[in-house]
């Protein structure tokens, strides 16, 4: 049996840098990966989607060009070239990451599937054949999640797509029906609508993005509908009939929709079921996520979990930040916790940049708050570039002036949100941002005016 100082299962955006960091600190480290270096983000998540969304944005820009006095015509959408460009970018990121792993001293990359055989022991079913038993006093589980497939009669025979397989489809769907109205549904829905698909989104909740404030969810719905996307909420798919050349999708309200393709975007299931976690004494939650404390420690001593597999917000920057926390705790005996401000950005167009608490959450907690709001139609930069969709909103503590949360729906909403995130971290009150100097005429400059609304 081979022994290491640390073993990491999964080479995502937390697992890979952690493996390199521990190895560089002199720990004999093994990184186990069953498929591709880079995990979901690089191979089938953020990188390919944002690359393809750039093509969709170009289509939109062409269709809007006349409003800026430019006559332009969209001739065709070349999905083969869009997919090729996407694959090239993925390869670039993946290869770079793999090279980095292979060149790191003290780090051994094992291609295969890991499962626990004991407390500190794993069996790796090697992709090259055979298996290996390895052990370490520290094991970090970073094995991610996969698309959840709801149990719907007929779904198995429907040839349904997930976010991963849709990005391999060499045709543009005639009519794409999407189950779910979360980030994946909305990003893909808008992208494929712009590519030319008819798009219908079916959501079980009472509205899209149900965790966001109602005004946020309403504004996002509005700009999606403006592009001709149909959104059906408080509904669900009850049955799918695979007809000869189309799918007949039945909805809860009795509607029957003939569609060409089905995308399942109904959340993600943690990759815990094949890990034999019970052999190591690692407890999972009812939803199958690994239970961790604020130090990312599992119920078993010496075993940690980072990224999507542990539940909570599922973002690349969270997996990466988990690595930052754990590396310091393991290597420098620190006691850093996961108590952190969580930013995120949905890459629709306009984007939804979000950080901290929502207005509704603040109200439910009984906090003494003020809410600043500014429509993008009052933002100089938005007027100049000709895209006035969306608004900026910030929730502030009425007593201290500290920013508690923000939602920015705007062309570069994520970047503007990040400015407010920095203010939250630096504890800069809104009164100071109101008078702060920003370069004119940036979007961020309008944070002056956003907080001016609180003085009126
Ligand atoms: C379509 C899509 C778009 C997204 N866009 C964004 C975005 O724009 N921004 C953002 O922040 N987040 C985005 N996300 C979420 C983000 O991709 C994830 O939160 C992030 O990748 C999670 O990283 P992770 O390391 O926890 O898991 P993963 O990246 O999934 O890595 C887990 C790795 O473990 C490997 N593995 C699993 N089981 C085993 C095993 N038993 N043995 C060996 N290896 C194993 C897997 O092959 C995989 O490589 C998106 C997700 C999707 C699906
Ligand atoms: N820009 C980004 O950061 C980004 C982009 C894409 C994905 N992601 C991450 O990927 C994860 C997965 O995304 P997602 O959109 O699949 O999940 P999600 O959890 O964000 O949304 C799933 C939606 O599907 C609905 N749903 C579930 N089952 C359903 C059913 N049977 N019928 C109808 N509706 C149903 C849910 O009510 C929910 O609204 C997210 O947690 C997100 O963090 C992030």
CATH class of the largest domain: Alpha Beta
Question: What is the CA–CA distance across the termini?
Answer: 71 Å
Question: How many domains, as an integer?
Answer: 3
**Total number of helices:** 13
What is CATH's topology name of the largest domain?
FAD/NAD(P)-binding domain
CATH superfamily of the largest domain: FAD/NAD(P)-binding domain
Family: Belongs to the class-I pyridine nucleotide-disulfide oxidoreductase family.
Protein name: PF00070 family, FAD-dependent NAD(P)-disulfide oxidoreductase
GO molecular function: flavin adenine dinucleotide binding; NAD(P)H dehydrogenase (quinone) activity
Keywords: FAD, Flavoprotein, NAD, Nucleotide-binding, Oxidoreductase
What does this structure look like?
- This protein is globular.
- A hairpin with a 4-residue loop joins strand 18 and strand 19 (351-356).
- The chain is α/β, with parallel strands linked by helices and 456 residues long.
- The longest helix is centred in the first third of the chain and has 24 residues, at 79-102.
- 31% of the residues lie in helices and 24% in strands.
- The protein is built from 13 helices and 22 strands.
- The chain has helices at 15-24, 39-44, 46-64, 79-102, 163-166, 183-195, 214-226, 316-331, 359-364, 380-385, 413-425, 430-435, 447-452; strands spanning 2-3, 6-9, 29-33, 107-118, 121-126, 131-135, 138-141, 145-147, 175-179, 198-202, 230-232, 237-242, 247-251, 256-259, 261-264, 268-270, 303-305, 343-346, 351-356, 369-375, 391-397, 403-410.
- The termini are far apart.
- The chain has three domains: 2-145 and 269-331, 3-Layer(bba) Sandwich (FAD/NAD(P)-binding domain), CATH 3.50.50.60; 155-266, FAD/NAD(P)-binding domain (3-Layer(bba) Sandwich), CATH 3.50.50.60; 343-455, FAD/NAD-linked reductase, C-terminal dimerisation domain (Enolase-like, domain 1), CATH 3.30.390.30.
- Flavin-adenine dinucleotide binds at residues 9-15, 32-35, 39-41, 45-46, 49, 113-114, 142-144, 163, 184, 271, 274-275, 307-309, 314-317, 319, 347.
- Disulfide bonds join 41-46.
């Amino acid at each position: 049996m081979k022994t290491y100082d640390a073993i990491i299962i999964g080479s995502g955006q937390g697992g890979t840098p952690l493996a390199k960091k521990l190895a560089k600190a002199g720990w004999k480290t093994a990184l186990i990966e069953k498929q591709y270096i880079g995990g979901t983000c690089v191979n089938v998540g953020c990188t390919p989607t944002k690359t393809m969304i750039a093509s969709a944005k170009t289509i939109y820009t062409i269709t809007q060009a006349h409003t800026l006095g430019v006559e332009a015509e969209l001739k065709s959408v070349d999905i083969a070239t869009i997919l090729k460009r996407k694959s090239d970018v993925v390869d670039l990121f993946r290869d770079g990451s793999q090279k980095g792993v292979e060149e790191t001293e003290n780090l051994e990359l094992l291609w295969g599937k890991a499962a626990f055989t004991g407390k500190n022991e794993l069996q790796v079913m090697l992709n090259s054949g055979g298996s290996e038993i390895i052990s370490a006093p520290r094991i970090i589980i970073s094995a991610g999640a996969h698309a959840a497939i709801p149990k719907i009669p007929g779904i198995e025979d429907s040839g349904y797509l997930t976010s991963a397989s849709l990005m391999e489809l060499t045709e543009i769907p005639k009519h794409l029906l999407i189950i779910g109205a979360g980030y994946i549904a909305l990003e893909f829905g808008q992208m494929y609508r712009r590519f030319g698909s008819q798009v219908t989104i079916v959501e079980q909740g009472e509205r899209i993005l149900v965790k966001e404030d109602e005004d946020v969810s309403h504004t996002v719905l509005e700009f999606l509908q403006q592009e001709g996307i149909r959104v059906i909420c408080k509904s669900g798919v009850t049955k799918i009939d695979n007809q000869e050349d189309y799918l007949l999708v039945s909805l809860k309200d009795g509607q029957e929709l003939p569609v060409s393709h089905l995308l399942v975007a109904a959340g993600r299931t943690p990759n815990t079921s094949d890990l034999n976690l019970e052999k190591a004494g690692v407890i999972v939650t009812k939803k199958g996520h690994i239970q961790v404390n604020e130090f990312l420690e599992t119920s078993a001593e010496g075993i940690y979990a980072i990224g999507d597999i542990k539940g909570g917000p599922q973002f690349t920057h969270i997996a990466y930040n988990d690595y930052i926390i754990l590396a310091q705790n393991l290597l420098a005996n620190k006691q850093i916790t996961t108590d952190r401000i969580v930013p995120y950005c949905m890459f629709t167009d306009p984007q939804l940049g979000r950080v901290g608490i929502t207005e509704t959450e603040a109200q439910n907690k009984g906090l003494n708050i003020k809410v600043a709001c500014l429509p993008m139609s009052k933002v100089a930069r938005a007027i100049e570039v000709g895209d006035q969709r969306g608004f900026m909103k910030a929730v502030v503590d009425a007593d201290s002036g500290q920013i508690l949360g923000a939602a920015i729906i705007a062309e570069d909403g994520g970047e503007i949100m990040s400015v407010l995130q920095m203010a939250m971290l630096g504890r800069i009150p809104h009164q100071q941002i109101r008078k702060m100097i920003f370069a004119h005429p940036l979007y961020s400059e309008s944070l002056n005016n956003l907080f001016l609304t609180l003085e009126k």
